[in-house]
Amino acid sequence: MSAKFKVVGWLALGVVAGALTTMQLQANARSNLSPLPLEELQQLAAVFAMIKSDYVEPVDEKKLINDAIAGMVAGLDPHSQFFDKKNFKEFREGTTGKFVGVGIEIGMEDGLVKIVSPIEGSPAFRAGLKSGDLISKIDDSLVRGLGIDQAVKRMRGELGSKVQLTIYRKSENRSFPITIVREEIHNRSVRGKIIEPGYAWLRVSQFQDSTVDDFAKKLEELYKQEPHLKGLVLDLRNDPGGLLEASVAISSAFLTKDLVVVSTNGQIADSKASFKANPDDYLRRGGSDPLRNLPAALKKVPMIVLVNEGSASASEIVAGALQDHKRALVMGAQTFGKGSVQTVRQLSPETALKITTARYYTPSGRSIQATGILPDILLDETAEGNVFAALRTREADLEKHLNNGKEEIKDEAREKAREEAREKLEAEYAKKNEPPKPLPEFGSAEDFQLMQALNQLKGLPVMVSKTAIERKAEAKTDE
């Protein structure tokens, strides 16, 4: 693999935006379909027959049909997708936050998998794995050279199966093997802590089925530790989104009841809706409200919302709602710009269609599709400036992305800046024969943007970006 593709592939890991999804699984399509285009369908059948009879080798019929469906859906936009059996299983794992594995949160360091944190109660936690441990081998596969997605796939597997990890522990300067039995893991999408007396940090990394419950529990824990909270940083950086209802719930925790959080609009009646800060709008299956016991002070505590180019979809809903209602100050970098809603419709017990059904709008009526949320205060990634910002992919960079109600043209200046930044990083990579140093872990003492957010809450000077500017989805004008 060339240095070019190594750098771009490595950077792409944290910036792919998740779908803002409504999970009303439907087995049947709408009954009021327009007449079918018979001539085109006959062509499709003819092509199918030709491939079956004339192709160089036999082709599996089911695979051929699935590929045809997948191709048809892929031509719509970057977020519509046909789920075959394997992909549908992975999608459901992603939205439920449950998967079968060893139970670690990971990153990459020096080409190895770094354990950021073992998930409490998981097999990895019980086996004594520690934050900072490096994984050099997974079974017989060397980790160096693997992407993080490939490493994750090797560590996941069937319930009750075993995986052997070779661990290098820096603090003890030794390597050792450890065998772990895979279990069902509850993925933790909410973390938080008291940064210093009076100030808390709360991170939401994804909007899943369990996120709202985990969010409420973590806030209750923080208020027990610090009953007189003076300020809160809600960290949504690199949060790719997830479930619409979860974003409405988390926005509602900080907003006055019945304020509009987000509205949606599309072709079908169900897509024309307004969601408010009300349990009726975020409790999908009934039951008790997980936010009911949160302290009343939460509605007024001074807040900063941290976002970046990897904040997409549901995280943009939260940032946009709190910004429009002037409930929080948004700081960081302009967000991804994914302002569309996908609905999952089940086609069979093992397949489904995820299709874009609506655009969403912030309370003031802004469509952020292909533009994103512009922070009130723009920040660089580090005190020295931005390392990867120009390289990060955003919605407007994706082929076939929906426009935001205007006819867009390519931002040539942004494309040029990204190409120059990529070439600079590749030159550094080639010179040192190692990838650029990763950014500090979110929530750590070295987290520059978090420290600026804390300064803002305390009324101290903030190092505002001197170079970041708004990136617009430009429109052609009539001449």
List key phrases describing it.
single chain; 479 residues; alpha+beta; Pdz3 Domain; 2-enoyl-CoA Hydratase, Chain A, domain 1; six-stranded antiparallel sheet; 12 helices; 20 strands; globular; disordered N terminus; serine protease
Write the layout of secondary structure elements.
Elements: H1 3-12, E1 21-22, H2 38-54, H3 61-74, E2 81-83, H4 85-96, E3 98-101, E4 104-109, E5 112-118, H5 123-126, E6 134-138, E7 141-142, H6 148-155, E8 162-169, E9 174-181, E10 183-186, E11 190-196, E12 199-204, H7 211-225, E13 231-235, H8 244-252, E14 260-265, E15 273-276, H9 279-282, E16 303-307, H10 314-324, E17 329-332, E18 340-348, E19 351-361, E20 377-378, H11 412-432, H12 448-458
Parallel strand pairs: 1-18, 12-13, 13-16, 16-17, 17-20
Antiparallel strand pairs: 2-19, 3-10, 4-5, 5-6, 6-7, 6-8, 8-9, 11-12, 14-15, 14-19, 18-19
CATH superfamily of the largest domain: 2-enoyl-CoA Hydratase, Chain A, domain 1
**Number of helices in the DSSP assignment:** 12
- Within the CATH hierarchy, at the fold level, what is the topology of the largest domain? 2-enoyl-CoA Hydratase, Chain A, domain 1
Sequence stretches where pLDDT stays below 50 over 5 or more residues: 1-19, 23-31, 474-479
Compute the number of structural domains: 2
CATH architecture of the largest domain: Alpha-Beta Complex
Which structural category fits the helices and strands?
alpha+beta
Task: Characterize the main sheet.
Answer: 6 strands, mixed
